[in-house]
Amino acid sequence: MSVIALDQKAKVARPVKETAEARALRETSPGQWFPYAAPQTQERDTRENAFSFRGISRKFGDKTVLDNIDLDVPAGQFIAVIGKSGCGKSTLLRLLTGLDKPTSGTLTVNKGTEGENRTRIMFQEPRLLPWAKIAKNVEVGLTGIAKGKEAREKSLAILDEVGLADRAEEWPSVLSGGQRQRVALARALVAHPYILALDEPLGALDALTRIEMQHLLESIWQQQAFTAVLVTHDVAEAVALADRVIVIDHGRIALDLDIPLERPRRHGSPELARLEGKILDTLFGGTD
Description:
By secondary structure, the protein is α/β, with parallel strands linked by helices. It has one domain: Rossmann fold, CATH 3.40.50.300. The chain has 8 helices and 12 strands. It has helices at residues 20-27, 89-97, 134-139, 148-161, 177-189, 207-224, 235-241, 270-284; strands at 2-4, 6-7, 12-13, 49-60, 63-74, 78-82, 104-109, 119-122, 195-199, 227-232, 244-249, 252-258. The model is unreliable at 6-16 and 18-46 (pLDDT under 50).
């Protein structure tokens, strides 16, 4: 388990050992950063929590972005975090992935039996390396884990899962926006992360491509059983994909809603519409 804690009296973070990934993030400019991958434990106890927030707050100067957040997410769950712009949802994701630290509170991330940080992130922009072909871009996700023939085989296997095995030797520039996001998804998943954070990765896609990518993401999540945390502005997307929707308003959890519907789910169904209405009422002050 990895714990980030703050001494409430001293207001100084207790020192923690810098991981290899944290060092890589520090030494690489944000414009060039891409997620590294690490092995997945073969067996997982789904009763355990993937991560827990206890009294988590994040301030920037006098502005409180997250205010005393308590949140437990079981391993393997798909949650969606939704809220208006500036509500703190992306900050929550940055704390989870280690790109930022809380001002106060305790964040516990389960690292699995290997003791490695296997939290990966996928952004709205694909962030592919333009000088590397598609297969090589995916192999980046295996840095420090596999190389040569093994890395090549894993790269081609995950590209096949996202429907791009036949584009392995092409350059990113010739792909459509949706195809580039498939490559980014393949890179994030190639070594089976324990937690996958998704920072509005489908936001720039057209409506039909977005629905197609939603189905693909759901399918791979069901196969690999990782914990998914999706930040989105799209209420319909949240209820279509998630087991649970967290609504954040003014830095606090305003709604924690289970989505107890069988999969696959049909867009526009009355059941989804009812849940969307409940979320929208919370966001915009409606009544039941």
